[in-house]
Amino acid sequence: MIPNPTSHCIDPLSGQLTGATGHYSKKLSAMAGLYADEARFAQAVEQGGDAIIYKVSDVRPAAVHGDLIFGTTFMEPGRIGNEFFMTRGHIHAKANRPETYYGESGQGLMLLESPEGATRVLEVLPRQMIYVPPFWIHRSVNIGAVPLVLSFCYPSDSGQDYSIIERSGGMASRILVDGSGWKEVPNSSYRPRETAEIAQVYETGDYEQ
User: Fold this and answer.
1) With contact defined as beta carbons under 8 Å apart, do 121 and 173 qualify?
2) pLDDT in tens, 37-73
3) Rounded to the nearest 5°, which phi and psi values hold at 159?
4) Which residues of 175-191 are buried (b: 16+ CB within 10 A; e: fewer)?
5) Using CA atoms in the order 29, 32, 36, 39, what is the torsion angle rounded to 10 degrees?
């Protein structure tokens, strides 16, 4: 039998998604290694390591090619030193899968990086759609004073690979406070990928590019 159609509502301020079948959250203490100012991070964890930085709700009808996963991300505002709160970031395990993000409320950025290390930064505002093409690593950043709420959609067989960022010492760029705004700066801990690892990224997936 084919699946039944469903309808879901999103609260643009809380990110609550009706009919969600999956939920997870990330506490501050789980974000170790992401921020450049390790001393400030350790201090923040000591003061409130159980604070939830962001949470995700989603619907996963079936983990097969041709279906979709969709959901919401709710991210608190805040900073560690001069860096804004962010998600861990990932590339899809099947890297030739794309993703879309839609701004529900708040002010954020989508930080993107190609396997070769080229970066792009796209602003995410309410009613603004972001298209993340296949093969791009991506991370959401809350640059505002209020929570950032995004909705997203991607192929259900995509998977997530977080380790590609860890192996390179983080993403190639960091997003820092710049007066009342933000700026993109190089990540001094970044280690460019070897040719073999780049080639492996492009080889993932189970259909022609």
Assistant:
1) yes
2) 999 999 999 999 899 999 999 999 887 788 999 999 9
3) 70, 170
4) bbeeeeebebeebeebe
5) 60
The length of the chain is 209
Indicate the SS3 state at residue 196: helix
Mean pLDDT of the chain: 95
How many angstroms separate the Cα of 51 from the Cα of each of 7, 55, 58, 123? 32, 11, 21, 26
- Determine the straight-line distance between the first and last CA of the chain, rounded to whole angstroms: 30
Listed in sequence order, the residues at least 6 apart from 153 whose beta carbon sits closer than 8 Å to its beta carbon are 68, 69, 70, 99, 100
Q: What is the pLDDT of residue 209?
A: 41
Pair of tokens at residue 14? 């809380």
Cα 79 from chain centre: 16
Which pLDDT score is estimated for 66? 86
Q: Quick one: CA torsion of 59, 154, 144, 183, rounded to 10 degrees? A: 160
Could you give the CA distance from residue 92 to residue 136 in angstroms, rounded to a whole number?
A: 8
Helix and strand element counts for the chain (H, E): 3, 13
Residues of the chain with pLDDT under 70: 205-209
Q: In 3D, which of 93, 91, 59, 67 has the Cα closest to residue 206?
A: 93
> Max CA-CA distance within the chain?
57
| CATH superfamily assigned to domain 22-202 | Jelly Rolls (2.60.120.10)
Helix residue ranges, H only, 49-193: 163-167
